[in-house]
User: Fold these one by one.
Assistant:
Number 1:
Amino acid sequence: MTPDGLAALVRARELLLMLDYDGTLVPMAPLPHLATPSPEILNALQRLAGTPGRVVAVISGRRLEELQVMLPLTGLYLAGTHGAEWRDPGGRIYRRLDPASFKKMMDILEAMAVECVNGKDGFLIENKGLSLALHYRRAEPAAAVETLNKFHRRILPVINKHGLEVLPGRKVVEIRPRGVNKGIMVQYLCRRYPQAFPLYFGDDRTDEDAFAALEGGWGILVSPAPRPSAATFSLSSPREVYRVLLLLNGNGRPGWQ
Ligand SMILES: O=P(O)(O)OC[C@H]1O[C@H](O[C@H]2O[C@H](CO)[C@@H](O)[C@H](O)[C@H]2O)[C@H](O)[C@@H](O)[C@@H]1O
């Protein structure tokens, strides 16, 4: 699907526009804090969020606190930690889980990750309170395999005992409470806005839960190459996602670089 084709199909409808952040709205970067949106993306999202007939939601594995810094926008949903916490367009904050009850567990997992990484270069441990991510984007491939195997063995008893799950992502392994996934947030929004046609844009394994939860809408996989997915269509890059946002804003000028 081309961005122009997709926008032409949905432009006239009332839309529930849901987007993943990393790899979808913003291109991947070597480190999480470097994946920041351009002013053009921020403008496009802000315009959409202020347009009648458009409900906009960004649904990410990042913490809500971090998303609010990355996307200093108003009038849209920001959902963090795979939908475990979110801010609504009116600025109210909601949490499905109490971070306090997971703190001890995440601290234990963090200590295990530190032990397995053992000071090796290229790893990043991110304790998000409700989940823990072990990034290996900049690690040597052999070191990544060895460390991840060790980490999996180390955490297995804890995972099973405490109802957690392990999710492989793009150069990251994440541990989060079972039952928390982007699909739950998508379902909530679809039911809250039944009149709006749902579209979900995502690039990663965690977005598959969201595609599967769409109630009569379309999932748009963001990937340069075809791959198995529950999505309906695909776009090749965040750049193409940006073009769809521009077109939905009624601004089809080519040439976002
Ligand atoms: O659900 P998402 O919005 O796609 O968030 C998924 C994870 O994204 C971040 O990590 C990933 O992106 C970084 C920046 O491009 C990259 O450096 C890292 O290797 C990727 O794993 C974020 O740090 C995680 O907390 C999110 O779960």
Number 2:
Amino acid sequence: MNAAHHSAGDVLAVENLGIAFGGLKAVDGVSFGAAPRAITTVIGPNGAGKTTLFNLISGAIRPGAGRVRLEGRDVTGLSPARLQRAGLARSFQITNLFFDMTVRENLRLAAQVLDPPGAIFRPLSRTSRAALKVEELVERFALGPKIHEPVKALSHGEQRRLEIAMCLASEPRVLMLDEPTQGMSHQDTEDTARLVRGLTKEVTILLIEHDIGLVMSLSDHVVVMHQGRRLAAGTPAEVRADPAVQAAYFGQG
Ligand SMILES: Nc1ncnc2c1ncn2[C@@H]1O[C@H](COP(=O)(O)OP(=O)(O)OP(=O)(O)O)[C@@H](O)[C@H]1O
């Protein structure tokens, strides 16, 4: 078992993070690191504290204890908007999408952070950083045939992929994804898993995932949560072999 909480080269370091709701310690002294260009996956039974941990890291909830460092910089307690500017993006499944606007318009809005302030009000330049980013994402995410469609006309899988594409538009250093394949068909799940794996060329990924098959095939590093605490951390094979993990998690059937 890899006992190290994090190492100097980690892009994201979570140190003794905690929050209590009334008497309930939803996240209790959790530490781990996310290595550059790796996929780190947080798993655990229902109510283990995964979503709360993500909320603490992404600024949705202010931690009661502990620190979050992004590339060495202390970003604890920053708002989600400031964290995004610092290089941390979180996909909220499909809730960031504008359903009546086209795919291109959605991507253009997400990419506008790359252009100088006010550029969105000037006539569209085809060579602005934002415009070039939109073209790049359309190609990578195979959205070409759909760019003029309103988002509401896309399939669920396409909407989820568009959401991930929009998160990448700001060129984050860390991308947080909460069950990126939830509700997808088998084929869409495979395509999305391949896509997420490909993203590690440019971004460090932090996942919450319930599908154990996907966790084992996709993750470089797994953090197991149980009752708010970090129960174990290591490679997929290490955590699967851990008796405490088996008892608390896999044993639950
Ligand atoms: N805002 C809140 N107020 C009070 N209790 C909360 C709040 N948010 C979460 N909790 C509690 O904290 C614990 C951890 O919840 P959390 O949603 O983080 O777990 P989870 O691992 O994401 O679960 P799931 O897999 O079901 O999504 C649960 O007992 C939950 O009821």
